[in-house]
Amino acid sequence: MLGRIAIRKVAVGSAPRVMAGATLGEATRAIRCSTDRDRVADLAVDTLERFAPACEAAILLVVRGATAIGWKGFQRAGGGLPEIAVPMDDAGLVPRAVELNVSLRRPSTELDPIDRLLLASLGRSDGDLVIVPIAIADQVMCVIAIATADDAPVACAESIAAAAGAAFARLMRDASR
Asked: Which residue segments constitute the domains of the chain, with CATH numbers given?
């Protein structure tokens, strides 16, 4: 007892899901309206997990200089994702997607060594690696790396990335005021 308030032990489980919105449109709206960058990333990852069932694993990579560093992600098979850093000065899908500001996709049989390592870090040795850029004012700041089965649809990833880019741009504008 502390004063007149009974204090009990509370079991704390894993972090609750950050779900927002019952539809893809509602979820992307929630991403765009998020109040901080961690919430944007959490909602983007959660939205991918919920609305892209073919997406077996995904990670947001933040582009910082000559490296893209893993930030948040998920793996449907369970377990966490390892810490990931992708060099931006080597060949590969991540540097190309950042340079061209377009989504890129390749099957595992056509991947460069660094891309094969990224796919393996996402828990797959086969299937496709998809890289979707998140741009702010036409400059790519982050990418979403996605592992899927061969030719599996992940069309909603681009709308999720666009919502995240809009949210990050708004947060940067708000911070500069």
From this structure: 25-175 (3.30.450.40)
